[in-house]
Write a structure and sequence with these properties.
Blueprint lengths: L10 H11 L6 E6 L2 E6 L8 H11 L19 H19 L12 E6 L4 H13 L3 E5 L1 H4 L7 H11 L2 E5 L3 H10 L4 E5 L5 H15 L6 E5 L4 H10 L5 E5 L8 H10 L3 E5 L2 H4 L5 E4 L11 H7 L7 H7 L4 E4 L11 H5 L5 H19 L3
Parallel strand pairs: 3-4, 3-5, 5-6, 7-8, 7-10, 8-9, 10-11
Antiparallel strand pairs: 1-2
Helix pairs in contact: 3-15, 4-15, 6-7, 8-15, 9-10
C-alpha cells in the first residue's frame, strides 16, 4: 500500500498487520514475501512486536480500549479545569465559524455515527451541522434503523459502528444502554441525551451564561419545573463548578435522590431542592424552565398540568427574580404551559443563543473526546 495514503493505524492497516502476524504463536510459520511463500522453522518462543501484541489483545477482548480517547457521558466525569477548557475551546471555535473561517477542518476524513432512539430537531441539526462545518461527515441512524437492544444487541452495535466511524453520538431512553454502548465501543461515545441526564445541553447552557453573565462561578441558577434529566446534569455541574443551584418543583417530582446527594457531598456548589417558586427565584441570575411532561411521559401531560399549577414561569415570577435575571429554556417549549409567550420573547430571554450554542459546545466536546 502506498505510504502517502495516510492509512497507518486505520482499520485496514490493523487488519493487514493482524492477518500477517497473529499466527506467530506456533512453531512452524509461513511468511509471505510478495508472492513467494517460504517455510521457516522457529526454535523457541517467538517474541511478538508490541504493536501487534496490542492488536491481538484488543481483538481477543470483548471490551476494547480507547487509547487517548474519551467518552462524554456525565459532566462530573471531568474536573473543573477540563470543563472550563472545553468551554473556552467552544468560544474559540464559535468565533472562528462566526468570522466566516472555513479552513479549520479538524474533523476532515472523520465520520460521526448519530444514533437516535429519541427524535430531536436541535440534537440532530446541531451535531450534523457542527461536524460538517469542521470538515467531517455525520450519519443519521433513526429509531427504525437500529432498534438497539431489540433487533441487535447494544454491544454488537457498539463494536460494528466503531469499525466504521471515528465517534458515536447517542440519544437514547435508558441510561444503561448508553453505558453499555460506551463500554463496548472502541471510539468515543457522546451522550446526546438519556432519561437520566443531558450533559451536552448543560454545556451549551454554561457557554451561554459565560457569554451573557461573564462566568458560571458564583451565580445562582433556579430551575422551575420537573426534576428531570436536565436537573440531573445541572446538579452534576454543581458538583464540579461552584455556583448556587436551586431546583424548585412540586412535591413528588424531585430529582433523583442519589444524584442530589452526590452533588451535595462533592461540597463544591450550593444545592437546594425547594417547593416555593416565588421564594426560590429571588436574586437569580438565571431562571430556567423545561416542559412538564418529557418525551415518554405525554400520557401524564394532563395530570401534570394540574399538579404543576403555580410553577409556570410568567412575567410576575421574572419580576420577583429581578432585572438581572435571564430566562433560559432547553426547548422545545410549550408556550402558555410551563412558560408564557411573553417571557420567551422578552429582551432578557436568551433561549435562542442557548439553542445555537448546542452546536458550538458539542463541537468542543467532540474535539476534546478525539484528542484534537
Amino acid at each position: 500500500m502506498p505510504a502517502n495514503l495516510g492509512l497507518e493505524g486505520s482499520h485496514f492497516q490493523i487488519h493487514r498487520t493482524t492477518t500477517s502476524c497473529l499466527n506467530l504463536d506456533t512453531m512452524s510459520k509461513d511468511f509471505v514475501r510478495g508472492v513467494k511463500t517460504n517455510k521457516l522453522k522457529v526454535n523457541g518462543p517467538v517474541k511478538m512486536p508490541t504493536k501487534v501484541s496490542h492488536i491481538k489483545s484488543a481483538l481477543m477482548s470483548p471490551v476494547e480500549e480507547k487509547t487517548g480517547l474519551q467518552d462524554f457521558l456525565h459532566i462530573n466525569d471531568f474536573d473543573k479545569g477540563t470543563i472550563l477548557k472545553i468551554l473556552d475551546r467552544a468560544k474559540e471555535v464559535k468565533a472562528l465559524l462566526k468570522s466566516g473561517e472555513r479552513t479549520y477542518l479538524p474533523f476532515k476524513g472523520k465520520t460521526l455515527a448519530m444514533i437516535f432512539a429519541k427524535p430531536s430537531m436541535r440534537t440532530r441539526v446541531s451535531f450534523e451541522t457542527g461536524f460538517y462545518l469542521l470538515g467531517g461527515h455525520a450519519i443519521f441512524l433513526g429509531p427504525k434503523d437500529i432498534e438497539m437492544g431489540k433487533r441487535e444487541e447494544t454491544r454488537d452495535v457498539a463494536r460494528v459502528l466503531s469499525r466504521y466511524n471515528d465517534i458515536i453520538m447517542a440519544r437514547l431512553f435508558a441510561h444503561q444502554d448508553l453505558l453499555d454502548l460506551a463500554k463496548y465501543a472502541s471510539v468515543p461515545v457522546i451522550n446526546g441525551l438519556t432519561d437520566y441526564n443531558h450533559p451536552c445541553q448543560i454545556m451549551a447552557d454554561a457557554l451561554t451564561m459565560i457569554e451573557h453573565i461573564g462566568q458560571i462561578e458564583g451565580t445562582k441558577v433556579v430551575y422551575v419545573g420537573d426534576g428531570n434529566n436536565i436537573v440531573h446534569s445541572w446538579l452534576l455541574l454543581a458538583a464540579v463548578i461552584p455556583f448556587h443551584f436551586v431546583c424548585v418543583c412540586p412535591k413528588g417530582f424531585e430529582p433523583d435522590a442519589k444524584t442530589v446527594e452526590k452533588a451535595q457531598q462533592a461540597g463544591v456548589g450550593k444545592i437546594e431542592i425547594t417547593h416555593d417558586p416565588k421564594e426560590a427565584v429571588k436574586g437569580a441570575d438565571v431562571v430556567y424552565s423545561d416542559v412538564w411532561a418529557s418525551m415518554g411521559q405525554k400520557e401524564e401531560a394532563e395530570y401534570r398540568r394540574k399538579v404543576f399549577q403555580g410553577f409556570q414561569v410568567d412575567e410576575e415570577l421574572m419580576k420577583i427574580a429581578g432585572p438581572q435575571a435571564y430566562f433560559m429554556h432547553c426547548l422545545p417549549a410549550e408556550r402558555g404551559v410551563e412558560v408564557t409567550n411573553g417571557v420567551v420573547e422578552a429582551p432578557n430571554s436568551i433561549v435562542f443563543p442557548q439553542a445555537e450554542n448546542r452546536m458550538h459546545a458539542q463541537n468542543a466536546i467532540m474535539l476534546h473526546s478525539l484528542g484534537l
